Amino acid sequence: MQNLVKKIGSWLFLIGILIAIVAGIIVGARWYDDGNLYIASLIAVLGFVVGILSFFAMGSITKDRIPTFLLGALIILMIGATAQYWDSWAFTSSNSDLIFFFQQLTGYLAFFALPAAGLLAIRAIWDAGKTEDIEKVIPKIPE
Questions:
Q1: What was the pLDDT predicted at 17?
Q2: Which of 76, 56, 72 is nearest to 140 (CA)?
Q3: Are 112 and 20 in contact (CB under 8 A)?
Q4: Residue 11 CB: number of other CB atoms within 10 A?
Q5: What is the pLDDT of residue 31?
Q6: What burial class does residue 57 get, using C-beta atoms within 10 Å of its C-beta: 0-12 exposed, 13-18 middle, 19+ buried?
Q7: What gap in Å lies between CA 36 and CA 118, rounded to an integer?
Q8: What is the DSSP string of 32-53?
Q9: CA distance linking residue 12 with residue 18, whole number of Å
Q10: pTM for the whole thing?
C-alpha cells in the first residue's frame, strides 16, 4: 500500500510541475487569458497534496531531499516575487511581453511549490527541534 501511495505522490509531483510549466507558457505567451484563478487553484491543490504526502514520508520528496526542495522553492518564490518589479527597470521596459512571460511562468511554479514548501518547512523545523523526550510523548513521524 505504501509503495502505491509513493508512486501516486511521484506522479502527482510530476503532473503538478508539468501543469505549472505548461500553464505558465500558455498564459505567459498570452494564448489564454481566462481562468487563471482555476489553473492556479488546481496547481496549488496539487502542491498541497504533494506536500502532505511528503510530510508523512509517502511522497517523492524524501527527508534527504527536503533541504534541496526548500532551497529551490525559495529561489522560485524570490524570482516570482521580484518579477513584478522588472517593468520598472529602464533596460527592460521595451520587453514587456518577455517580462510578462517570465512572471507567469515563475508565478505558476511558485503556486505549485509554495504549499509543499510550507509543509516541508514545518517538517524541517520539527525535525531540527525535536528531542527524545518529545518523541516519547508525540509519535515519531515516519522518515
A1: 94
A2: 56
A3: yes
A4: 11
A5: 79
A6: middle
A7: 22
A8: --S-HHHHHHHHHHHHHHHHHH
A9: 10
A10: 0.82
DSSP state of 29: T
Domains of the chain by residue range: 2-131
Task: Tell me if residue 131 falls in helix, strand or coil.
Answer: coil
At 119, list the grid cell.
509543509
Q: Are 80 and 40 in contact (CB under 8 A)?
A: no
Average pLDDT, consecutive stretches of 10 residues, N- to C-terminus, the chain (143 residues): 84 93 88 77 94 88 88 88 67 68 87 93 85 74 68
Confidence (pLDDT) at 2: 74
Q: So what's the pLDDT on residue 91?
A: 54
Quick one: cell of 121?
518547512
| Residues found in the chain | 143
Q: What's the pLDDT at 129?
A: 81
Cα distance between residue 92 and residue 39, in whole Å: 28
